[in-house]
Amino acid sequence: MGQDRQSGAAGNRFGHETAKHVATSIGAELVRKGSNEAKYQGARLVIKCANVATDSVGVTYQMLERLETVLGAFSRDDGQIDLMSLPAATFRKHMVPTRSKGASAGKVGLVKKKVFLEKGRNVGRIKGSARAA
Question: Global pTM?
Fold first, then answer.
């Protein structure tokens, strides 16, 4: 199902709130307000969040150039969040362009959760944030 303006804004809020929660939980430092880009254990990464019904995450091509890792934060039915790390080069190799016709058209690559499970590294599981739900 596609997004409209309202569902896109809700998804954006969920992603930013969840990324803050993930960063706090693992001890990562978000690099600037309004971005899910972070520093963690000396590496530059982005925390990309997917709610239960979402099976992929997207990163802008421009951001991907300065990252070492994409940290996928995948919400579960039980309220917890699975954290999966994928090297930026692996993300790039497996990404497909967004089908969006809006602002992200031609600027964002998507990778399925399945790729994180098959090619990534399990970083752990954290309790979900009531605020981000």
Answer: 0.89
Give the separation between CA 12 and CA 10, rounded to whole angstroms: 5
| CA–CA distances in Å: residue 44 to residues 5, 29, 66, 109, 126 | 30, 10, 8, 18, 21
More confident: 8 or 56: 56
Contact 64, 92 (CB under 8 A): yes
Q: Which domain holds residue 74?
A: 5-127
Q: How many CA atoms lie within 13 A of 77 on its CB side?
A: 0
Q: Is the dihedral of CA 113, 33, 13, 20 positive or negative?
A: positive
CATH number at residue 75: 3.40.210.10
Residue linked to tokens 């309790």: 127
